[in-house]
Amino acid sequence: xxxxxxxxxxxxxxxxxxxxxxxxxxxxxxxxxxxxxxxxxxxxxxxxxxxxxxxxxxxxxxxxxxxxxxxxxxxxxxxxxxxxxxxxxxxxxxxxxxxxxxxxxxxxxxxxxxxxxxxxxxxxxxxxxxxxxxxxxxxxxxxxxxxxxxxxxxxxxxxxxxxxxxxxxxxxx
Length: 173
Prior knowledge:
The protein is mostly beta strands. The protein has helices at 3-17, 161-169; strands at 24-27, 30-33, 36-44, 50-55, 62-68, 72-79, 86-94, 105-112, 117-122, 125-131, 136-139. The chain has one domain. The chain has a 5-stranded antiparallel beta sheet with strand order 3-8-9-10-11, covered by helices on one side. A hairpin with a 2-residue loop joins β9 (117-122) and β10 (125-131). The relative contact order is 0.17.
């Protein structure tokens, strides 16, 4: 990966962790505004029951929820305009597989400024994205497989670096 991308990502995450609502980064003489609003930040212990919810800063019907039920960590997309409230779910981890679960982890949920996408960061690393505009949820594990009858994630749940970068930078849909 390009070193400048890593530097940009680090600066972005530091700004999110600080709770910055709007931030800029200067690279090569140009100015780039990131498209994220940090909403929730919480320290957790993997394997201890926790639920962290975050409502879109623009659309009251859109919400994401991170849950550790003592066995697994999941990230859910919810839309109160639908009868079935949970519209997508992304597997984040199995507690038994997390080798450093005894160390506190920092959870951050950030939304795109347009309120249509949410990103789950764990320890400054993006683990999952819920893209409500494109009905696409994706995560590092790519699990679980897409249900056959779901209008969400028809392209699958595998990590989409290109779309993640578009959301972070405020790029195209």
